[in-house]
């Protein structure tokens, strides 16, 4: 295949078999780069020229956490539960070359669509596993990661077997002692689902003997609940003596206005939120 035959980022599409939704890769005329749309909704953004250019706010916060908790350029073993357009995997490769990464994706057609239209950075070491995130992670018995990123939640429509305390406990068992679970939770204005996930993750962390849950988000979502995303953190890494310095770095890095809640503040922020019973 010659360069004339293949144009990276050329508009491509696929019909996803699990969700029965169409997926498209289209040019982003506003921010530049390329966008993955599923069912007409933007899911991911990729800048092929600069993989460190992360547009989505919640993903920028996750990238900043990885940058802060582990020394720069040090390879990390990262598991991504949910592929999207592999934006974070590209970021990790660009900032930490040689990082062994694995992605678990339930939509069989999606990784092929994404990597064909938007090739991964040279040297990317990425294992793609097709299947249910809980089942496939459980099958990796004895395998451990520094970071596990869970990015499959979308409010009350989220898979209930993943939005559960027992699954969080299973995920912790695949983390190194100083590892970190990073959970992106998208929710509507009521934030009922988010409140339930905070409670379940807090309970799982306590059962695993870990410190509580940290929350990173846009400050306005705490004072005036609206549609949006929050990043929840839990894991042995948060017992570090440097966590207060990390907190300041997370606030400084933004995106702004940023809010970073420690475990006590996280519990207080969601104490009075109406939410379903824990599973």
Structural summary, described in words:
This protein is of the alpha/beta class. The chain has one domain (51-270): 3-Layer(aba) Sandwich (Rossmann fold). Helices cover 30% and strands 27% of the residues. The strands form 2 sheets. The chain has an 8-stranded mixed β-sheet with strand order 7-6-5-8-9-11-10-12, sandwiched between helices. A hairpin with a 2-residue loop joins strand 3 (34-38) and strand 4 (41-46). It starts with 11 loop residues before the first strand and ends in a 9-residue tail after the last helix. The relative contact order is 0.12. Residues 1-6 and 275-279 have low confidence and may be disordered.
Measured between the Cα atoms of the first and last residue, the distance is: 52 Å
Largest sheet: 8 strands, mixed
Beta percentage is 25-35%
| Strand adjacency order, main sheet | 7-6-5-8-9-11-10-12
